[in-house]
Design goal:
By secondary structure, this protein is mainly α. The protein has helices spanning 2-5, 10-29, 91-94, 103-119, 129-138, 154-161, 173-183; strands spanning 32-33, 42-47, 50-56, 63-64.
Length: 190
């Protein structure tokens, strides 16, 4: 939508992202981490007259957490492997999944999607994959208000969602969705 229409107004972008947060919260509660969130994996449809009904697609790179595996199952991912769409991947994914990639990684991706929706730009850009990954891992986190007119509070949301330390991010998609919903004076649904 952003490529076609340009940056989205806050009152359109936030409700969509709140819905996505709800869908991810459900996946996370089942022990599933998406690992490839990007605008192309958020399908907007009409449902019962509701425009911009969001559906999260393509769990093809999803990782089931070890606690959800059956005894004897084999983990197919390994440290040092990079999975996902680089422009929206978290620093821990860009670094080759050092440590556990968990719900906070999807929260980073949600923040990057919102950054893209509201500014029309990507948080980190480069033509070369290696350079892009390095930028995601080490470059200063960009301040959205320096590249576009963004709503009050967005710099703060983005900084928290994009923090290099996953422990400093919103700890659940629900927490991020609730914060975004408050911006519109609404509440997120469970």
């Amino acid at each position: 939508v952003v490529r076609r229409e340009g940056p989205l107004p806050l009152d359109r972008a936030i409700p969509v992202l709140v819905q996505v947060c709800g869908a991810l919260q459900e996946a996370h509660s089942q022990g599933i981490i998406h690992r490839d969130l990007k605008p192309e994996n958020i399908f907007l449809s009409t449902n019962g007259g509701l425009k911009d009904y969001a559906k999260v697609l393509d769990f093809g790179l999803a990782k089931v957490t070890e606690r959800e595996l059956r005894p004897g199952s084999i983990m197919l991912t390994q440290e040092g492997m990079v999975f996902g769409t680089p422009e929206f991947m978290s620093p821990e994914q860009a670094a080759g999944s050092r440590g556990e990639v968990g719900p906070a990684s999807d929260v980073y991706s949600l923040g990057a999607i919102l950054y893209h929706c509201l500014t029309g730009r990507l948080p980190f850009e480069s033509e070369a994959l290696g350079d892009l990954l390095v930028r995601i891992i080490v470059n200063p986190i960009p301040v959205p208000s320096t590249v576009a007119a963004v709503p009050p509070g967005f710099d703060r949301w983005w900084a928290r969602a994009a923090d290099r330390n996953p422990d400093n991010r919103f700890q659940t998609a629900k927490d991020f969705g609730n914060e975004l919903a408050l911006a519109l004076g609404t509440t997120a649904t469970d």
